[in-house]
Design goal:
It is a single chain. The protein is an alpha/beta fold. The protein has a domain at 6-40 and 53-69 and 103-176 and 285-365: FAD/NAD(P)-binding domain (3-Layer(bba) Sandwich), CATH 3.50.50.60. Helix content is 35%, strand content 25%. The chain contains 13 helices and 19 strands. It has helices at 13-23, 49-58, 61-65, 93-98, 107-120, 166-171, 191-197, 253-258, 265-272, 313-327, 335-365, 369-381, 384-395, and strands at 6-9, 29-32, 44-47, 73-78, 84-89, 103-106, 124-127, 132-137, 142-146, 151-154, 156-159, 178-190, 209-213, 216-224, 230-239, 247-249, 278-284, 292-293, 296-298. The strands form 4 sheets. It has an 8-stranded mixed sheet with strand order 5-4-13-14-15-12-17-16, with helices on both faces. A 6-stranded mixed sheet has the order 7-2-1-11-19-18. Strand 4 (73-78) and strand 5 form a beta hairpin. Helix 1 packs parallel to helix 5, helix 2 runs parallel beside helix 10 and helix 10 (313-327) packs antiparallel against helix 11 (335-365). The longest helix is centred in the last third of the chain and has 31 residues, at 335-365. It is globular and about 65 Å long.
Length: 406
């Protein structure tokens, strides 16, 4: 088997986007995935314009746009009173300024689009049921060894294997992810149920809306499932001081409702619709300087896992994929220097997004008392242009030639 290929570990959103980015320049890719069946959760995620610029750079932006819903605004409200705190329009001047839409997509649907494009590419090989154990390298190649003893050799290795990355464990060695102390509760309900729960004129379904309360918030938005059904995505985040990873536990609906003893009537009617709740502890990692090891590089959540408060996890991963794909359009001898340039181009921006995501949880979503009143006064004073200014450094990014001298 030829070694003139790039190895990608992980067939999630980041791994598939990376494979497509590299293959779009005529390079061969082998994607190694530990799961036999590669499935993303049927839950919504939000993509800012920077994500679409990355997708366009990779060559798949049109395919994703066909799956997306385009909300009118992002809204923040006081959870107890229902009073509006901020409404940031996402049409008109927003799209003109940032050059692309803000969208809501289904993670499973987005994954299905990327997977179909990968399977259709003659340059991409997908190997499932292949759990990576370690890697080794010499001056010319890098080899991945699976837990079953399979060996795969290429000129570069890009690790997109998530927050508990096996490759990161060897490359960085920084232990387990950090728990934030916050718990997330998630449910999905048919849109018809949500529409009938609201009275005419009530706030609710024109875009992603967060209802803010001390130490917690409730967020909802509409998206389409992988099979095209419109649904309402419900999420509650609560500061519980949890110190252990928790994934997928099914809490009682009464427990979720009890997290908001004071909640505006319209929000409570939506929250009551939730059934089949699942919960997990929010985790991230501290930013690290080391993303590469000669012919090996970390990407996406393996490199810079972040809390969801800035809604940039997927968008930053797609940016990584766009940049690394461009830079790996090179001769084998150039790979180590190109991966170093990828890390140099991406590190500061991704680290800033990590840090801002942490700060937003404390300062925007969950403060109480005086800090909450200060936040409310600040938010209600902002004009539409000023709201757009606040997100410009994140949403307006489109320079995916950064670090590329060719």
């Amino acid at each position: 088997m030829s070694t003139d290929r790039t190895l990608v570990v992980g067939a999630g959103l980041g791994g598939l986007a990376t494979a497509l980015s590299i293959a779009s320049r005529g390079r061969r890719v082998t994607v190694l995935e530990r799961r036999q069946a590669v499935v993303e959760p049927d839950a919504g995620t939000q993509l800012a314009p920077n994500a679409f610029h990355a997708l366009d750079s990779i060559g798949v932006g049109r395919d994703v746009r066909e799956r997306a819903l385009l909300p009118e605004a992002l809204c923040l409200r006081d959870a107890a009173t229902g009073d509006p705190l901020a409404r940031m329009p996402l049409t008109g001047t927003y799209r003109d300024r940032f050059g692309a839409p803000y969208a809501v997509v289904d993670r499973a649907g987005l994954h299905a689009v990327l997977m179909a494009l990968c399977r259709a590419s003659e340059s991409i090989e997908l190997v499932t049921g292949c759990a990576v154990a370690w890697y080794e390298q010499d001056a010319r190649t890098v080899t991945v060894v699976s837990e079953a003893g399979q060996r795969f050799t290429g000129t570069a290795l890009v690790a997109a294997d998530g927050i508990r990355s096996t490759v990161r464990r060897r490359l960085v060695g920084d232990g387990a992810p950090k728990t934030s102390g916050d718990m997330v509760y998630h449910a999905v309900v048919p849109l018809t149920d949500a529409a009938t729960a609201l009275l005419p004129g009530e706030p609710g379904l024109d875009g992603p809306t967060a209802w803010l309360a001390p130490g917690r918030h409730f967020v909802h938005f509409v998206h389409r499932t992988a099979d095209g059904r419109p649904v309402l995505n419900l999420g509650v985040t609560h500061e519980q001081g949890v110190s252990e990873p928790v994934v997928g536990l099914p809490p009682d609906t009464s427990h979720v409702l009890g997290l908001f003893p004071d909640l505006a009537d319209s929000a409570r009617r939506l929250l009551r619709l939730g059934t089949g709740w699942r919960t997990w502890a929010l985790c991230d990692r501290d930013p690290v300087e080391r993303w590469t090891d000669h012919r090996v590089a970390l990407l996406g959540t393996a490199a810079h896992p972040m809390l969801p408060y800035a809604v940039q996890g997927v968008s930053q991963t797609l940016e990584d994929a766009a940049v690394v794909g461009r830079l790996l359009d090179c001769e084998a001898a150039e790979v180590p220097s190109r991966l170093s340039r990828y890390a140099a181009a991406r590190r500061a921006r991704a680290h800033r997004a990590q840090q801002v995501s942490r700060e937003l949880g404390r300062r925007l979503f969950h403060p109480s008392g005086g800090p909450a009143r200060t936040r409310d006064a600040m938010l209600t004073s902002l004009t539409t242009e000023e709201l757009h200014d606040k997100v410009a450094w994140l949403h307006g990014f489109r320079d995916f030639a950064e670090g590329d001298e060719s």
